[in-house]
Amino acid sequence: MYEDRKEQALATWHSLLARPEIRMTAQEQYEELLRLAEEYLKQGFIDRDERKVLVTEATRRYAQAVTGVGEGT
């Protein structure tokens, strides 16, 4: 049961990373991804190393979005 909840939580996180909610800015998406990563750590779904990977991935995506805006994309 625990593994199912962890898989669902991570699927939700990756879904938000790939497809932000309608009208969600890059900053809002980034903040929500960080909030979810922290919540998953608190709930025990992930450990600190896994959280670090999620935060790094979210930061990379946010940086791409911000850079893309500056380049007119």
| Overall helicity | over 70%
Oligomeric state, counting identical vs distinct chains = single chain
Helix tally equals: 3
- What's the order of the H and E elements? HHH
Uncertain stretches of 5 or more adjacent residues: none
Roughly how many Å is the radius of gyration?
13 Å
The coarse overall form would be elongated
Largest sheet data: none
What is the end-to-end distance?
Answer: 43 Å
Structural category is: mainly alpha
State mean pLDDT (0 to 100 scale).
91
Strand content range: under 5%
* Count of extended strands: 0
Characterize this entry briefly.
Helices cover 79% and strands 0% of the residues. It has 73 residues and is mostly helical.
Walk me through the topology.
Blueprint: H1 2-18, H2 26-43, H3 48-70
List keywords for this structure.
mainly alpha, 73 residues, single chain
Question: Could you walk me through the main structural features you see in this protein, from its secondary elements to its overall organization?
Answer:
This protein has about 70 residues and is mostly helical. The chain has a domain at about 25-73. The protein has helices spanning about 1-20, 25-45, 50-70. The longest helix has 23 residues, at about 50-70. It is elongated.
